[in-house]
C-alpha cells in the first residue's frame, strides 16, 4: 500500500511536467509568472539540497558520498554543455525570433539547432529520472524526507515542462511534438521512482548511493541552471529565492520539532 502511495505522488510530480508543457503549447504564460515560480522552486530546491540532502549523504556515506555527489553534478554539466554547444543563431535577413526558454533551458535568442534540442531533452531525461529517484528514495529514508523532496521537486516541475516545450518549439517542431517531449519527461520521472522502489526492496546502500548522485544533480540544477536563469530579473526573483529557502528551512524545522524527521 505504501509503495502505491509513493508511486501516486511521483505520478503527480510527473504530471506537473505535462502541465508545464500544456501551458506553453496551448496558452502562453506571462514571463513574470514563470520567473517567479522558477525562483521560488530554485530557493526551495537549494535549501533541500544544502540543508537536508547533502548533510545526510555525507553523514550516511562519508567516504563515498562526495564522489557520487560530484559525479551527479558533473554529469548534468556535461549533458547541458553538449546541448548549449550546438545552439545557433540564425543570421538571415528576417526576424526569426522564437520563444525564449526559461528555467531548465538552453537559451537561444532566435533559433535552436534541432540537435541541441535533442541533447537538451536527453539531459532533462536524466534529471527527471533522478526526480523520481529522489522522491521515492526520500520516502524510503523517512516519510518527512519524502514529503520535503516531493514539495521541492513539484515546485520546479511546471517550469521544467514549460522550458522543454519552449526548446522544442524554438527548434522548429510542431506543438504536438513539443508536448510529447514533456510526456517523455513524465515517463522518465516514473521510471526513476520505480527503479528506486525496487532498490528499496533489496537494500539501503543502493538507495543512499542514488540519493547522493541525485543530490549532485540537484546542486547543479539549483546553482548553475535555475538561479542564473532568474537572477537578472531583479529583486522580485531574489526575494522569491530567499522565500523558497525560508519555506524549506521552516518546513524542516517543523518536522524536526514535531519529531517526524
From TrEMBL:
Q: Does the keyword Electron transport apply?
A: no
InterPro entries per UniProt = ZIP
Q: Spell out where the chain crosses the membrane.
A: 32-51, 133-155, 176-199, 205-223, 235-255
Q: Where in the cell is it found?
A: Membrane
Look up and give the membrane topology term. Answer: Multi-pass membrane protein
Organism for this UniProt entry: Alicyclobacillus cellulosilyticus
Q: Which UniProt keywords apply?
A: Membrane, Transmembrane, Transmembrane helix
Recorded protein name is Divalent cation transporter
Provide one Gene Ontology cellular component: membrane
Amino acid at each position: 500500500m505504501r509503495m502505491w502511495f509513493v508511486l501516486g505522488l511521483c505520478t503527480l510530480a510527473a504530471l506537473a511536467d505535462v502541465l508545464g508543457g500544456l501551458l506553453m503549447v496551448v496558452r502562453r504564460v506571462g514571463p513574470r509568472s514563470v520567473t517567479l515560480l522558477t525562483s521560488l522552486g530554485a530557493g526551495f530546491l537549494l535549501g533541500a539540497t544544502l540543508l537536508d540532502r547533502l548533510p545526510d549523504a555525507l553523514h550516511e556515506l562519508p567516504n563515498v558520498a562526495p564522489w557520487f555527489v560530484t559525479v551527479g553534478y558533473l554529469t548534468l554539466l556535461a549533458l547541458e554543455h553538449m546541448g548549449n554547444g550546438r545552439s545557433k543563431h540564425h543570421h538571415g535577413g528576417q526576424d526569426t525570433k522564437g520563444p525564449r526558454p526559461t528555467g531548465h533551458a538552453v537559451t537561444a535568442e532566435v533559433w535552436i539547432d534541432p540537435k541541441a534540442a535533442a541533447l537538451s531533452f536527453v539531459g532533462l531525461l536524466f534529471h527527471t529520472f533522478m526526480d523520481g529517484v529522489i522522491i521515492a528514495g526520500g520516502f524510503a529514508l523517512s516519510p518527512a524526507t519524502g514529503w520535503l523532496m516531493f514539495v521541492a521537486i513539484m515546485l520546479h516541475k511546471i517550469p521544467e515542462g514549460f522550458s522543454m516545450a519552449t526548446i522544442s518549439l524554438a527548434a522548429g517542431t510542431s506543438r504536438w511534438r513539443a508536448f510529447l517531449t514533456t510526456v517523455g519527461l513524465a515517463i522518465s520521472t516514473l521510471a526513476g521512482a520505480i527503479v528506486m522502489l525496487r532498490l528499496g526492496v533489496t537494500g539501503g546502500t543502493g538507495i543512499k548511493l542514488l540519493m547522493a548522485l541525485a543530490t549532485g544533480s540537484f546542486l547543479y540544477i539549483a546553482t548553475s541552471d535555475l538561479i542564473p536563469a532568474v537572477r537578472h530579473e531583479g529583486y522580485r526573483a531574489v526575494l522569491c529565492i530567499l522565500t523558497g529557502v525560508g519555506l524549506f528551512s521552516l518546513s524542516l524545522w517543523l518536522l524536526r520539532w514535531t519529531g517526524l524527521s
